[in-house]
Amino acid sequence: MIHSIEWVVGETAGTRPVALAPDVAVGGRDVVMMAGPCSVETYEQTRAVAAEVARLGGRVLRGGAYKPRTSPYAFQGLGREGLEILRAVANEFDLLIVTEALGVEQLPLVAEFADVIQIGSRNMQHYPLLWAAGETEKPVLLKRGFMSTIDEWLKAAEHVASRGNERIILCERGIRTFETATRNTLDVNAIALIKQTTPFPIIADPSHGTGRADLVTAAARSAVAAGADGLLVEFHPNPAEALSDGDQALPLAALPRFRAEIERVARALGRGIC
After folding, report:
1. Phi and psi dihedrals of 206, rounded to 5?
2. Average model confidence (pLDDT) for the chain?
3. Pairwise CA distance, residues 77 & 38, whole Å
4. Is the pLDDT confidence value at 4 over 60?
């Protein structure tokens, strides 16, 4: 059990990979791409994305069934129906699922359908949810709060680990700064620091990290160059019609080129991609 993260500060820590399947681990040699729509909207939309992810050799499908939105009038997700859609298309194409649980009451249902439980930025310090996730056996993807320090983020990870679950993947998803040209500022420094000073694998979310589709690929390249073990990226068949975060979603047709660009950076560092 990890009793404290503080002991590794200032030292070089080896990343402890988190296995998602016998042949897929975050924190190993390969950079793991977790691609899919921001929100599960329809079966057809989700299946189209899953088919392309699988065709290109991807192993993990991302998608939101429950969506924490700033406005209560925005699309909140399909809930259980969204989870059922994710599971159906993932099973068809032999993919793993990462999706978010918003609260303790939803966690058992999400854990039933998902392979990785995501805890979002707004819930990074939702301690009952962290404790409940720590009592499951599923890998937990913990996003950094958009106003949180690295120390606060690591302490949140300790809350999960303190309940027995050390299968934790950190996700740098951008922080709020004084800059207004982008939705958030992707903290690439944090990726390098986490890799050097903690045992946790870390991935990056360049979609939320920038909020602009035209910057996602460049941000993703920089994250991998800094040592990210994976990427959480939004793709949509028609971003202009997306029910959530269309401005930051890449068109599905761009997935092959995106993957090729990330693979070039990964291979330059002696890594593969899956």
Report:
1. -75, -15
2. 94
3. 10
4. no
Q: Which helix (H) or strand (E) element contains residue 127?
A: helix 127-134
Report d(CA 134, CA 96) in Å as an integer: 20
Report the distance separating Cα 57 and Cα 273, nearest Å.
9
Looking at residue 13, what is its pLDDT? 58
Residue 36 main-chain phi, psi, to 5 deg: 160, -175
CATH class of 6-273: alpha beta
Spans of all domains in the chain: 6-273
- Encode pLDDT of 196-250 as tens digits: 999 999 999 999 999 999 999 999 999 999 999 999 999 999 999 999 988 999 9
**Rounded CA separation 249/255 (Å):** 11
pTM higher than the cut 0.85: yes
| CA gap 176, 164 in Å, rounded | 31
What is the three-class DSSP state of 145? Answer: coil
The one-letter code for the residue type at 72 is P
Longest dimension (CA), the chain: 49
Please give the backbone phi and psi of residue 175, each rounded to the nearest 5 degrees, phi first. -120, 160
The single-letter code of the amino acid at 205 is D
Which residue has 């360049």 as its token pair?
206
User: What dihedral do alpha carbons 155, 157, 161, 167 form, nearest 10°?
Assistant: -160
- Report CA 94 to chain centroid distance, whole Å: 19
